[in-house]
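User: Run a structure prediction on this.
Assistant: Running it now.
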Amino acid sequence: MLRFIFNILFALFFIFFVLYLFALLPRLSRKRDMLRYRHTMFAHRGYHCLEKGIPENSMAAFRAALNRGYGIEIDLHLTKDGHLVVFHDDTLERMCGRPDVIEHLTYKELKSCRLGGTSETIPSFEDVLSLVEGQVPLLIELKIPDSSLQICEKAYQRLQQYSGPCLIQSFNTLGIRWFRLNAPHILRGQLSSNLTRDPLKEAWLLRFMVKHLLANFLGRPDFISYNLNDLPIVNVWILKHIFHIPVAVWTLNTPDMLYRGKRYFDMLIFEKQNEIY
């Protein structure tokens, strides 16, 4: 009887373990292609410093990153009239002083906004690609606030004409899955952090799965991009040390965080803070 119970428990454990690995498993066939990005430093939203008149996600910030040879991390939204623009927040409140939601405005309306009280305006994705022209790697975060994945299709259409090195990433696993199904040659990453810490509009179970990277079976990411302040967690350790998948960490904005990032991880998403580096 004890042997029978033991066999049942072992079988259940084995099934659970197989399902766990299936859920966690990344794409393994593109690890060689990811080697070129190891140790890359990505300037978070460009090499920005508002005190010097260079706001985040601005053309000035991207030029400053290019001048220093840094990779560039950007955030991509889709406007009401189907244009791709580079901006981080869901609303214009923090950077432009108005409460509007990005997806509810047209590109023309957004172009009239000024970033952080400067003369800089919200760039289009086209502006950024034309500026960078493959000089440094681009890390492109897709902002997907609802169930529509049209931004994935629009971004891919433009990237088909872009020959420079680039990676896409998103918190929304369905966006990563879209690229898995429709543009598998583009390297993709799963963004994550401690998503269950604060109440968000997304279902708690979904946030739990993304936090622990258990939704990888949908997107099969080539790399993981995780908030350094929320590490370590077991699943990131397994992906890095067992499956040897690169891990990017963000946002490194102190000397100590930069040191930890360089010592323990593969790609660094950092911010300039008044020349402290």
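The mean pLDDT is 95.
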